[in-house]
DNA sequence: TAAATCACTTGATCCAGCTCAATAACTTCT
DNA sequence: AGAAGTTATTGAGCTGGATCAAGTGATTTA
């Protein structure tokens, strides 16, 4: 299956400074010289195919990974043999942050489609960050941002209805695609309904029914993995509550 | 309300090296000299009383806070004026990590009882960590650990039943109290049933009924905030599924 | 091109946990 | 100590979303 063309990919070495993701990735806000030094430790790995694991839970941790193309699902196997999907990750996003803690991965990461990643050996990153304050700052922020994301997910899972969850999910992808220069209203989701449901704490059937309903209500058009958002504003209203209530929000 | 005795507290300056929390807090694993330097930037603030805010969402961020005694609830106000409880924090735990991202707090923190905290001005910590690699490492780990915690909460809220949630909650406190030298089976919860429910994504009534049921099943004895765990093993079974299934756990 | 498998949709039913409501116990204030 | 306000418990009934079941398209295999 591994043909010559794939091998040729390995030689395509794009420097961080030339990478289109620079503003989304670790180099963000670094001086050109420092980007150069960061670039020195980054390794571009071969592409992963759909279903390939980038790492598995309990693997020894050595590198953070930055997605450069494609998409990745992270998940934890749980007691009863099923899994909890933790996130879907797009180019420019860093995975493996949970593993810094004790140098073992606490979740698994699998490619949802053909996906390329950069490897950033963490020990090297760490010592580099000691001598580049802005890099250190960048890493602190990155970790803090991840905490913020997860906090939002806690609210989603703790309080929101099924329709609010799916609307939030779709808008998140819309925004993230937009930030990457793709359409905010017309995109392909690389994960299955089952994975969406798992991530959102909903049954597959519920997700499916919601897609159908959203389509009936002309909020979107959906055909399998292809989604076209037709009324982003109403999706936002769904997520943030009727803005009438929002404005008269009480203090606590 | 602020009497003289409280003022006298302000003068009790316990150095990090003498603090009983040292092994739970940032100094963990640092050389004595480095603890000394860390100690130089730490400020002990006056005690907060029940209901006092340590910080509020959207406040400008300047310091991480380490709880030295008492307990704190963090929460985010959400759209419809209600709140999502994000966590309950005990001595040795650090709060404010989410605010590093953009120097604004994204959640509020309120004292659940009389509570003392240390302030660690973040900019000073950051520059100190540039020159103390082990401190830098400690901070990375701390942030990573926080990500790990939240990941566990995602699984809790995404997949677990009400009884599993409450059992998990109780065991978490049991372990944390134990780690701090208190009883693992006999403790006081400083938060209300309402706050527990909010945190666990359950209605107050459900929490109350579960406490009653757990008591009927002789898993624990509860009277208001005072909890005595009578059968920790069965609580663990509840959380981790019947251990028969657990052992034959499949790969994915 | 047919058969098998997998992913998704749709319908019917069920139930865990929510909401509403009343009461009880504790706390705070005067 | 009694009144007023909070917080917790308990009961009854409801419902959003789960589960179970069947069918329909896709996609892969042969």
SSE inventory with pairings:
Two copies of one chain form a homodimer.
Chain A: H1 4-10, H2 32-41, E1 43-44, E2 53-55, E3 63-69, E4 72-77, E5 83-89, E6 94-95, E7 108-111, E8 116-121, H3 122-131, H4 133-159, H5 162-179, E9 186-188, H6 193-200, H7 204-216, E10 220-223, E11 226-229, H8 232-240, H9 243-247
Antiparallel strand pairs in A: 1-8, 2-7, 3-6, 3-8, 4-5, 4-7, 9-11, 10-11
The structure holds a DNA duplex (30 and 30 nucleotides).
Classified in CATH, the superfamily of the largest domain in chain A is: Jelly Rolls
Number of helices of chain A: 9
Oligomer: homodimer
Strand order of the largest sheet of chain A: 1-8-3-6
Runs of chain A with pLDDT <50, length 5+? 1-10, 243-252
Give the overall shape of chain A: globular
Which chain pair has the greatest contact?
Answer: A-B, 56 and 56 residues
Overview of the molecule:
The structure is a homodimer of 252-residue chains. Chain A is α+β, with helices and mostly antiparallel strands. Chain A has two domains: 9-156, Jelly Rolls (Sandwich); 161-251, Winged helix-like DNA-binding domain superfamily/Winged helix DNA-binding domain (Arc Repressor Mutant, subunit A, Orthogonal Bundle), CATH 1.10.10.10. Chain A has helices at residues 4-10, 32-41, 122-131, 133-159, 162-179, 193-200, 204-216, 232-240, 243-247, and strands at residues 43-44, 53-55, 63-69, 72-77, 83-89, 94-95, 108-111, 116-121, 186-188, 220-223, 226-229. In chain A, the strands form three sheets. Chain A has a four-stranded antiparallel sheet. A four-stranded antiparallel sheet of chain A has the order 2-7-4-5. A three-stranded antiparallel sheet of chain A has the order 9-11-10. The first copy, chain A, is globular, with a radius of gyration of 19 Å. Chain A starts with a helix and ends in a 5-residue tail after the last helix. Chain A binds a DNA duplex (30 and 30 nucleotides) through helix 7.
């Amino acid at each position: 299956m591994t043909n010559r063309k794939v091998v040729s990919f390995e030689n395509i070495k794009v420097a961080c400074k030339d990478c289109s993701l620079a503003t989304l990735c670790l180099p963000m806000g670094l001086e050109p010289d420092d980007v150069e030094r960061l670039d020195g430790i980054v390794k571009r790995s071969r592409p992963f195919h759909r279903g390939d694991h980038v790492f598995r839970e309990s693997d020894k941790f050595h590198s953070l990974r930055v997605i450069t193309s494609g998409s990745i699902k992270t998940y934890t196997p749980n007691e009863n043999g099923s899994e909890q999907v933790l996130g879907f990750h797009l180019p420019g996003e860093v995975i493996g942050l949970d593993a810094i803690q004790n140098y073992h991965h606490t979740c698994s990461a699998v490619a949802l489609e053909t996906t390329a990643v950069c490897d950033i050996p963490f020990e090297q990153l760490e010592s580099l960050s000691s001598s580049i304050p802005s890099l250190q700052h960048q890493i602190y922020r990155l970790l803090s941002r991840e905490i913020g994301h997860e906090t939002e997910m806690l609210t989603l899972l703790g309080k929101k209805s099924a329709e609010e969850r799916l609307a939030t999910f779709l808008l998140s992808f819309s925004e993230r695609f937009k930030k990457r220069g793709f359409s905010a209203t017309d995109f392909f989701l690389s994960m299955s309904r089952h994975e969406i449901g798992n991530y959102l704490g909903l049954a597959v059937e519920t997700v499916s029914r919601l897609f159908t309903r959203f389509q009936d209500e002309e909020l979107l058009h959906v055909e399998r993995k292809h989604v076209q958002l037709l009324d982003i504003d109403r999706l936002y209203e769904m997520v943030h509550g009727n803005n009438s209530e929002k404005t008269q929000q009480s203090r606590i």
